[in-house]
Design brief:
This protein has 385 residues and is an alpha/beta fold. Helices cover 36% and strands 26% of the residues.
Amino acid sequence: MTRTILANARLILPEAVIPGAVVIENGLIAAVQPGETLPAPGPGEAVLDMAGDFLAPGLVELHTDNLERHMRPRPGVSWPHAGAILAHDAELAGCGITTVFDAMRVGSIPNDGPDDDYDKYARELAHELAAIRDRGVLRISHFLHLRAEICSETLLAELDEFGPEDRVGIISLMDHTPGQRQFRDIAKLAQYVQGKYKLSDAEFADHVARLKELRARFGDRHEAAAVQIAHRLGAVLASHDDTTAEHVAVSAGHGVRLAEFPTTPEAAAACHDHGIMVMMGAPNLIRGGSHSGNVSAADLARAGRLDILSSDYVPSALLAGAMMLAQIWDDLPRAMATVTANPARAAGLDDRGRLEPGLRADLIRFAAMEQTPVLRETWVRGRRV
C-alpha cells in the first residue's frame, strides 16, 4: 500500500483544531482533509481510525541533555555510547519527538575534581551517532547542537574538528562563570555543585576561582571565534542565559537568532525587540519555576515573550509543557507551535513542523488524561516508529 489515511482525528492546524484526516504518501503529507467521516479504503490505501484523538506534527527538540544522561547515568559512571544513543533515540520517539538537535558540549577543562565531567567527548560521539544513523536503525531525525563552552581551554581545537558534513544545526554560546547569567546566585550554584560532588566549602571556593580565571583568559577571544565557526558551518547561532539588555545586544550583534533560557524578563523583552526567538525549558513551566532561581517560563508566556519550549532534561516534558501553555493561552494551536513549527523555523527546517501538504509526514497521535497528554503513536516520514 502506498497511501495511508489517518482519519477521524482532531487535527491541530496552525490556526485551528478541526475534525479531519491526514493522507500520507511516500513519506510526505499528501493532503489534509476536513470532515468527521471514516472513508472506505480505495485501491492501495489503508485507512486508520484515530478515534477522535489529536493528530499533530511531530515535536521538534532543539536543546536536550538527554543523550548525555544516557552516557553518564550517574556521576562517574560511563555507559557504552551505541547503547546510549539507541536508548536516547527510542525514548524521544516514545515522547513524540521526531526531530532532535542532540546537545554535545565542546570545550574541555583538564583538571581534577568536579571538572572531571568536562572531559572531551563530542567528536567521538558525533562519529558514532553518524555511523548508527547511516545503518538506518534510528527512529527519528538527528542533528547536532554544539554547546560551545567559551570559558574552556580547548574550545577552538574541538570546534575545528567539525565540518559541514556533520549536520551541525545549532551552535550555542555557553558561559557558566559563577556570579553571572544562570548562576548569578552563587548560593544556588553551591547548592547544586556541592550537592552533586560532595565538595567542602573550601573546595567549592577553589572551583569558583578556577572558572573565573578561565573566563578572564579565554572568554572574549573564544566567543568571537565560535561565532565565526558557526557561520562557517552554516549553523544557527544561539545565545544562552542572557540576563541583561546588554547581553542581548551583544548576542544580536553576533547574529544570534535563538535565545536559550534568558534568565530575566528584561532579557526576554530585549530579545523580542531584536527579533530573537525566546526558548524556555518545559521543566521550568511544569515545575512552576526555574531550579536556578531565574525567571519563570509561565510568567514569560503570560507576557507574550515565549516562542519555543525545550524539554531540556525531561523528554516527556515537551508535549506536557505544550498542553500547559494551551491552558495559559487558551489556544492549543499557538501552544503546539512552540514545540513544532516555531523550533523548526528557528532551526531553518522548512520541511516539517506543520500539518500541510508537501511537508514530511512526521506526526503524533495523542489523547488527554485530564491535563496530561497520553501519546499513542509516532510517525516519522510516514512510518510508525
